[in-house]
Every structure is written in C-alpha cells, then in structure tokens.
Amino acid sequence: MHSQTTALRGREVHVSLGGREVLHGIDISLIAGHWTSIVGPNGAGKSTLLKALAGVLPATGSIYLFSEEILAMDRTHRARQLSWLGQNEPASDDLRVWDVVMLGRLPHQTWLAAPSAHDRAVVETALQATQAWAWRERCLGQLSGGERQRVLLARAMAVQAPVMLMDEPLTNLDPPHQVDWLEQVRCLTSQGTTVISVLHEVGMALHADDMVVMQAGRVVHQGACHDAATHRAVEAVFDKRIAIQSMDGQWVALPKL
Amino acid sequence: MTHDTARISPLLTALILSVLCGLLIGLGSAVGSTGFESWRNAMQDNTAWQIVWEIRLPRSVGACAAGALLGLAGALAQGLFRNPLADPYLLGSAAGASLGVATSLALLGGSPFATEWMVRMGLTGAAFVGAVLAVVLTLVLARGVQHTLRLLLAGVIVGVVFSAMASLVALIRPEVQQAMQGFLLGSTSFVGWSACVLMLSVLAFSMLISYALSRVLDALTLGESTALSLGLPLLPARVALVSVLALATGTAVAQTGLVAFVGLAAPHLVRSWVKTRHHWIVVLSALMGGVLLSGADLLARMLLSPQELPVGVLTAVLGGGYLLWLMYRSQVARAA
C-alpha cells in the first residue's frame, strides 16, 4: 500500500462565535484521496470545523493544506486547491444556472477575462454530472430546492480542486439523487480528489472511507468507517439511540426503539 | 408551469436604452415654457439658442446623468447587500445631504433672488459633504463594511438621526423650510453644464470601478463563504464598492436633490427583463436610471406646462406605483 499523504491538517484549532468558544482545540488530519465524513449531534461544531478548515472562518491554531499554512496562502492559489459547498447559503434567484456554475471557474480565470473553451467544457461536464445540464438557461429562482442543490454542487465541482469541502450536501436531495451524489463522490476520490463532508444522514456517512466523530466542540474519534470502534463512537455520541449494523454488505444506522 | 420568460440579450437592451436616453435628451431640449419655437429657431435666434443650449440641454443631460448615477448606485447597493429592495440612500446619504442643505440654508440665511446661484452652489457642496459624512458615520458605527446587517442598521440609525436634526434646523429657522422642501422633492432645474461635466466624470469613474469589481458582486450572490472560497479579495472590493456607492449617490443628490425611487427601480427593472451577470447589470442599471429620470423630468416639465412639477414628486408617484404593481404581481404569482 502506498504511503498516505495528508491533504488537510488542523492543529490546536479554536474558534469562537459571538464570544463563545465553539471549537476547543481540534487536532485533525485528513488523508488525501479519501472521502471523510464528519458526523455528530446538532451543535457539535461540525459546520464550524469545516468552515475553519476551508479558511472562510477566522480560527486560531494552524491549518495546513498540503503542508502550506492555509491563511498564508495566496488567495487564488488556495481557491484552486480547495473548493467549498456551503449549507443553506442564500443564492440570488436571478442568476442563470450556467452563470452560477461558471463562477466555479473564477480561480482559474484572470481578472475580467472571458471564459475559455476549457472553462466552458468543465462547466458542461459538471452540469452533466449532476444532471443539471437541461436547466442551464433557467434561473435559480425557477428551480426546486433539490434542483438548486445539484446546481450548487456542480458549481463546487467546476473548481476542479484536489480538495472538496461540502457542508450537508444532501439537503433537499431525493433518494435517487442522494445515491447519485454518493457515486459522484466515489468517482471524485477514485481520481485522487479528497472529499470532506459534514453529513446528518449517518447511514450515508458510513459509506465514506474515514469518519470524524464530533461532540461538544471536540473530535471524540477519528477512524475508518468499517472499523467497529468508529461505530461504537458514533452510537455513543448519539446517546445510543441508534445502532450500526451490517446489512447486505453495507453499514446502516437503525433507530433503537 | 416552467415557462421561461422571453430573454432579451443584454447588448440589445443596452442599445435600446441608449437610444431612449438620446431621444429623451433631444426631446428635453425641445420642451419648455417657450415650446418647440426656441428649438426650431435656435440656429437663427440668439435668445432661442441660449434657451436651448444654456438651459434646456444641460438640464436634460443632467437629469440623465443623475439618473444614471442613482441607477448605478442602486445596482451596487442591491448587489452588495444582496437585497433586491436595497436603495442607494440606505447608508444615510440622503439624510446627510438634507442636513447639509438645511444647515447651509440656515447659515446663509433666506435666499434673496439675486444671490440664488451663489446659494445654490453652496447648497450643492453642503449636500455632498453631508452625504459623505453620513456614510462615513454609518461605516464607523457599523465598524467597517464586513457585516451587512450591521451596516444596514447603522444606515437606518444615521438616517433617522440626521433627518431629525435637519427637521430641527428647519423648525428653528422656518424661513429655510421652502427651499429645503424643494431640495427634498428633487429638481433638475438648476443643473448647468459644469454640474453635467462633474456628474458625467463621476459616472465614468464609478462605472469603471463597478465594472472591474462586478465579479465580486456575482460571487457574493452565492454567499460570503463561497465568495471567499473562490479566492476573491472580498474586503478591499467591498470598501471600494461602498465608496463608489457613496460617491455616486452623493454627487447625484448634491445636484438634483432627493430624487425618489430611481435608484431602487432601475436595477429592479433591469433584472426583471434581462437575466445576466453584474458586469451587464451595472451598465444597464445606469442606462435605465438615465431613461427613468430623463423621462420623469420631461413629464414634470410637460404636465402642467408652462409651470413645472418637481421631478421627485413624479418619480415618487411612478416608482411607488411600480412597487405596488410588483407586490400585487408577486401575490398573484404566489396564489396561482
């Protein structure tokens, strides 16, 4: 097995929001080319950690993206290395789907330059991959929640960054499109992309390679998704209200009634 | 139900709006208390030439330029605050300008007719200084430009306090009330060539900056974090755009008073007709603002001719009607 490089690493990461500390010194390292899912109960600090790792939220401590300190990196250079898909971010209704996805190409374009043929090809590929190509001329305001989410996912994919951070990417997606998302993530990691996602759906999160389990602003466990210790940690942070079991070769989370 | 609204290309829209601007300026130079006569005789008759060249034309060009400044400022405000109902006066510039005008009127005393031009010049400067001071105060209160909600709140506070102070000045010196009212309603009747040159230069400068930073506005439509993650220089771009917003609004307000609704309606109309990115929206909103204010100015001069209405009254009535219609339409759309 080849040696595993680290894509993102956080050391002693503290974040305070509104004067209250929400992350209490997180140490974390995420393996390149792996899909890591972050799970934990509401208010555990999952989204905050993801934002801090993306460099879009001020944090103390140090965060390294491929051994470069993320806040010291050149903005454009960082934007090409790391793509971000936020949760419930407000998006203007008036923007055309095509233009939204083309925004993902911004880090690759020089200021005020028109999109190149390559940019257009990448945008088309991303729209096809999320099955949003048919609506490219429509405005975001004319789409349903799930359709919108697929367009935003295409936007994040269009960056073609080696590291992708996604906060609740399954919001509003119906089951077939959740499965599509899963396949896209598998496809991305098979090409060497590192994917880190915060997921509420524990069952989906268990399909990842690695899992980070959080509770009350701390990482309580980090390990492989098929590892029994990981399963016990997940059950513990959810107050043993769920049980993780194997079914047809997949791990599933069942409610404990 | 998924019927796409017919799309007009931005370029075509820009052409149509430019032609409309030109037409309205042309018409504006032909309309006035002496009617078409002056325009027809302008080549032979010196007085007629002066009426057209020294009064009507600068005023028509000025109305168009002020409208364009407000339209551009409105597009910037709506993009920056990510709110389709944002308006260029949001940062307190309108109230600041009123206070500036009230103070200078009170200090200069009632205006005997002979010094009207001098007073007018003083008023223009005072309005501009007041508008800029109000925006600076808003920025200080909001501790910068980063927090949109704080910025809007600070703008409201500054607006209320400055308006109250302006009213207080008017209460203490009742003789300034009438001149003050004229300013508050907005009027293009005092715009000369120097004002036109000033407004057009500010417009060109503001447009250049806005066009160059239009990508930031595009990215901001996807939220702060996404814009940051795309590697955009968010803070410097915001500072630049807020400054341009204040400069454009202050310049327009100083020359034509508080013209209502143009800054809100122009970008709104553009976005409902053309679905495009901000590099077009800023250009089209400026053109649309020019068309709206030129058109309103023309109407204001024609409706009660040879008397004229303050143009602000017309834009308020027309703009209010437009918003009402929008509200009605969206209610119907929701009910359907």
Alpha-carbon distance between the two ends of chain A:
42 Å
Structural class by sheet pairing and helices of chain B: mainly alpha
Shape of chain A: globular
Structural class call of chain A reads alpha/beta
Q: How far is it from the N-terminal to the C-terminal residue of chain B, by CA? A: 10 Å
The CATH topology of chain A turns out to be Rossmann fold
How many helices of chain A? The count is 8
**How many distinct beta strands of chain A?**
12
Radius of gyration from the alpha-carbon trace of chain B, in angstroms: 20 Å
**Top CATH class of chain B:** Mainly Alpha
Binned, the helix content of chain A reads: 25-40%
- Tally of distinct domains of chain A: 1
H-E order of chain A: EEEHEEHEHHHEHEHEEHEE
Q: Profile the largest sheet of chain A.
A: 6 strands, mixed
Strand order of the largest sheet of chain A: 6-7-8-3-9-10
What is the overall shape of chain B? globular
Helicity range of chain B: over 70%
Largest interface: A-B, 38 and 25 residues
Summarize the main sheet of chain B: none
Question: Topology, please?
Answer:
The complex is a heterodimer of chains A (257) and B (336).
Chain A: E1 6-17, E2 20-31, E3 35-39, H1 46-54, E4 60-65, E5 68-69, H2 75-81, E6 82-85, H3 97-103, H4 117-129, H5 145-158, E7 163-167, H6 175-190, E8 194-198, H7 202-205, E9 210-215, E10 218-224, H8 228-237, E11 242-247, E12 250-255
Parallel strand pairs in A: 3-8, 3-9, 6-7, 7-8
Antiparallel strand pairs in A: 1-2, 1-4, 4-5, 9-10, 11-12
Chain B: H1 10-30, H2 36-41, H3 46-80, H4 93-108, H5 116-141, H6 148-172, H7 177-185, H8 193-212, H9 214-220, H10 224-229, H11 234-256, H12 262-273, H13 278-302, H14 311-335
